[in-house]
Every structure is written in C-alpha cells, then in structure tokens.
Amino acid sequence: MTTKSFLFNYEPLWQENRQGLRHKLPDNVQSWTYESGSLTQRLRNFYGDAVAVKVLLQRWHKPFLSERRLLQLPEHQYSLTREVLLHVNGKPLILARTIIPVTTIKAAKRNLSQLGNRPLGEIIFSYPKLERIAMDVALINLSTWTRSAIADAGIDQSIWGRRTVFAIAHKQMLVSEFFLPEILGNY
C-alpha cells in the first residue's frame, strides 16, 4: 500500500477555529492564518513571478479520518490527494495538502485534477461563487512530519497551519496550508 501522505507520519491534531483562538496565535501566524484571499496571490504580490510549485504527491487515496469527517465522505471513498511545496528560488515558503473528492472535480469541470505545477489558489479563487465553509488551526510538531517533508521544506521546529473547507458549486474540498519560517519571519 502506498503512503497517504508525503508530508505526515500521522494525521495532525487540528483545533476548530472558535472565537478567541485568533488572539492566542502569534501575530505573524494570525496574519497568514486569517488571510481571506489567495495565499499564492499574497506571495506573488511580494515575490513576483518567482513563486513556484513543487508537486510532492498527487494520488487517489482515502483521506485521513478527520478529513473524511470534515468533508462528510464515506469511509472507503477515494479522493484526489495533492501535496505541494510553494517556494521562491528553492526557498521553502508554504507546504500544502489538498483533498478533492471526485464530485468536486466534476463540478470544477476537471480543472482541479490537471493542475500540474500551477498553484491551486490560481484556479479556485477564479471561481465566482467560491465559498469558505470552515477553518481549523494546528501547531504541528516535528514528529508529525516525515523525514522527506523535513528535508524538502527545511523544517526544524513546530509549524503552524490552517485547513479550510472550500466549496465550488456547493461541492466541497479541503485545503491545508502550513506556514514555513521564511514567510513568518521575513514578511
């Protein structure tokens, strides 16, 4: 059996975004966690066209349990799992994990299954009726990450992330984004 994740040894522990959580996060983490627009666009506003995507994994898998529950997927249903590293000239900025059920791919006219090295945000934020349904936050410790993720992203500390349920034409998908030290410290 192939791995469910290039990034994780096991599923991260997420906290539901409840009132008051925002103020418990460091200021630099708040800025990224509560960004309402495309993170890709925010990166491009700062770095220009040097922002690139490295695809780490793209396969059909059964999502992690909490991902299935959040998307209300049956236990045995496969979804497209895509994990990427956004970087500038090899400098890691954001890791991302996206879970896209087949119904969402069909609703998006297959644009989401054929991204290649294009950022997901470029596509989903072009949909006029994109909805943001829910968001969770996590601080992911080193033992959660795989050796490969640690090596590719230069992870040497706990990393903050958010995961957001989006809907396109009322069909949901899950986007998890992890903020690497480069963007938290320098931007």
Written overview of the protein:
The structure is a single chain. The chain is α+β, with helices and mostly antiparallel strands. The protein has a single domain (15-186), classed as 3-Layer(aba) Sandwich (Chorismate lyase), CATH 3.40.1410. Helix content is 25%, strand content 34%. The protein is built from seven helices and seven strands. The mean pLDDT is 92.
In short:
The chain is of the alpha+beta class. It has helices spanning 27-33, 39-47, 65-71, 102-107, 120-124, 147-153, 181-186; strands at residues 15-16, 51-61, 79-88, 91-101, 131-140, 159-168, 171-179. A seven-stranded antiparallel beta sheet has the order 1-5-6-7-4-3-2.
CATH superfamily, called what?
Chorismate lyase-like
Looking at how many chains there are and whether they match, the oligomeric state comes to: single chain
The CA-CA distance between the termini, in Å, is: 40 Å
Q: Outline the biggest β-sheet.
A: 7 strands, antiparallel
The overall pLDDT average reads 92
CATH architecture descriptor? 3-Layer(aba) Sandwich
Strand order of the largest sheet: 1-5-6-7-4-3-2
Number of domains: 1
CATH topology value:
Chorismate lyase
> Low-confidence runs (pLDDT<50, min 5 residues)?
none
Order of helices and strands: EHHEHEEHHEHEEH
Strand percent estimate: 25-35%
SS elements, strand count: 7
How many individual helices? 7
Tell me the overall shape: globular
**Class based on secondary structure composition and strand pairing:** alpha+beta
Percent of residues in helices comes to 25-40%
Using only CA atoms, what is the Rg?
Answer: 15 Å
Top-tier CATH class: Alpha Beta
